[in-house]
Design brief:
355 residues; binds 2-OXO-4-methylpentanoic acid
Length: 355
């Protein structure tokens, strides 16, 4: 699709929230990006429109069979006033990989990147400036064909919406309490755990709700076969530091290939730390805690950034980590990532795209 992006500006402007009032994903900007796909035309009519409802036939495939993928990335207003997108190409690549897994036609990578840049540019006044706030970008593709048969749809809608956000968890940077579940599973080998597809999130709600009722912020999923190896948190990848080894589960298709995970691993390798992408069982974590070598646990994610885990609970046993405080490596990673995102530190790997 080489069509130029049409721009239909909104004639009204919504009031903008104060940075201090920002939560996660409740407020949306003035514009959105939209493009359509039809089998015979490919992706067509890329455009920016006033933010507003989509009109869908009740028979629309996505409403029945969840043929949908999305991604999530952020734009930051730097200390120099410039706006930077963090690793947008990597997010486009991941969205297209998710799309292929769900039989959704991928977007042209240049157009997808342009869609993010253009819509953020039009709503650039919405990018908040306080450290810890950002403009969350949510590109999404849904099957739009009104048809009740189970097969890949013949038409799709791609849209990008924007939301000024603060911290994802109400705890902010305070350590979160996480329940390790072995009663429910998120993904199995050969399934769609590695794709950012809507159904994965719907399927996680029941266990998350149970955990919340017990006072936990989130659940940590174990692998779906043995219910033994750490998978991910659902909104974050997980990392544990046992002794001097930092361990995170490998990308074998059951967990999301997190962009913050990737950035964090790159930084730690650059710092000369001992980093392993390997299976780590919950028993190994429990034993390490018993021996006093479970030094730090944290999650990584675009929305959550780096989130310290202060407590893990498993089969009725509660493990407090680093006295419930943020650990030194967790803090160092947070500071390093945030410094690049807000233009306070050099960006030697070209992770940010200034617009
Ligand atoms: C993200 O970190 O961007 C996510 O998509 C996690 C969650 C908000 C769904």
């Amino acid at each position: 699709m080489t069509e130029p992006i049409r721009i239909n500006r909104s004639s009204t402007r919504k009031p903008k929230p104060k940075d201090a009032d920002l939560g996660f994903g409740q407020i949306f900007t003035d514009h959105m990006f939209v493009a359509d796909f039809q089998e015979e035309k490919g992706w067509y009519d890329p455009r920016i429109e006033p933010y507003g409802p989509l009109s869908l036939d009740p028979a629309t495939a996505v409403l029945h069979y969840a043929q949908a993928v999305f991604d999530g990335l952020k734009a930051f207003r730097g200390v120099d006033g410039k706006i930077r997108l963090f690793r947008p190409q990597k997010h486009v690549e991941r969205m297209n990989n998710s799309a292929r897994r769900l039989c959704i036609p991928p977007l042209d990578a240049d157009l997808a990147l342009q869609s993010l840049v253009k819509v953020v540019d039009i709503d650039r006044d919405w990018v908040p400036s306080t450290v810890g706030t950002s403009l969350y970008i949510r590109p999404t593709i849904i099957a739009s064909e009104p048809f009740l048969g189970v097969r890949p749809a013949k038409s799709y809608i791609y849209f990008v919406i924007l939301s000024p956000v603060g911290a994802y968890y109400p705890e902010g940077m305070a350590p979160v309490k996480i329940l390790v579940v072995d009663k429910y599973v998120r993904a199995v080998d050969g399934g769609v755990g590695g794709a950012k597809t809507s159904g994965n999130y719907a399927a996680s709600l029941f266990a998350s709700d149970e955990a919340k009722h017990e006072g936990f912020t989130q659940v940590l999923w174990l692998d779906g076969v043995h219910r033994k190896y750490l998978d991910e948190v659902g909104t974050m990848n997980i990392m544990v530091k046992i002794g001097d080894e930092i361990i995170t589960p490998p990308l074998t298709g059951t967990i999301l290939p997190g962009v913050t995970r990737d950035s964090t691993l790159a930084l730690m390798r650059k710092w000369g730390l001992k980093v392993s992408e390997r299976q780590v069982s919950i028993d190994e974590v429990v034993e390490a805690h018993g021996r006093g070598t479970l030094a730090e646990v944290w999650g990584t994610g675009t929305a959550a950034v780096i989130s310290p885990v202060g407590e893990l609970a498993y089969q009725g046993k509660r493990m407090v980590i680093n006295r419930g405080q943020i650990g030194p490596l967790t803090q160092r990673l947070y500071d390093a990532i945030v410094a690049i995102q807000y233009g306070k530190a050099p960006d030697p790997d070209g992770w940010t795209l200034t617009i």
